[in-house]
Design brief:
The protein is mainly beta.
C-alpha cells in the first residue's frame, strides 16, 4: 500500500477534474504549491458517474508547509450499488485572491 498520484491542478474559478479517477479509496493527500500565498480558500469535492452533482465538499486553505490528509467518504448507498469510481474536482473559492494564478494542488490517493 502507498500513495498514488491522481494528477495536479492549477486552480481557477471553474470546477476542474484531476487527471485520474479514484477507485474505492477514501483517503487522499494534497500538497500545495504557490508563489505568493493566496488569500481565501479552495474547494475539493467528488464527482460520481451518475450525473453532474458533486458530493462531500471540503475547504482547502493555503498551506504549502504541511500536506493535508483528507477523508472523502463514498456514500453507503453508492457502495451498495458498486459506484466506487469517482473523479475528484477542485476550484478556487469565489472570494479567493491569487496573485500569480499559480496555486497548484498535487493530489494523491492511498491504496
Amino acid at each position: 500500500m502507498g500513495w498514488t498520484s491522481l494528477g495536479t491542478l492549477t486552480l481557477n474559478q471553474q470546477w476542474q477534474s484531476f487527471e485520474s479517477a479514484a477507485i474505492g479509496s477514501e483517503t487522499f493527500r494534497i500538497r500545495q504549491e504557490f508563489g505568493l500565498k493566496p488569500i481565501g480558500k479552495a474547494w475539493i469535492s467528488q464527482a460520481f458517474a451518475i450525473g453532474d452533482d458533486f458530493y462531500g465538499f471540503q475547504p482547502i486553505y493555503p498551506n504549502k508547509d504541511n500536506a493535508l490528509i483528507l477523508t472523502l467518504e463514498i456514500p453507503e448507498d453508492f457502495k451498495v450499488e458498486g459506484l466506487i469510481v469517482r473523479h475528484l474536482v477542485a476550484k478556487m473559492g469565489v472570494r479567493t485572491r491569487v496573485f500569480n494564478l499559480d496555486w497548484r494542488l498535487p493530489l494523491e490517493v492511498f491504496n
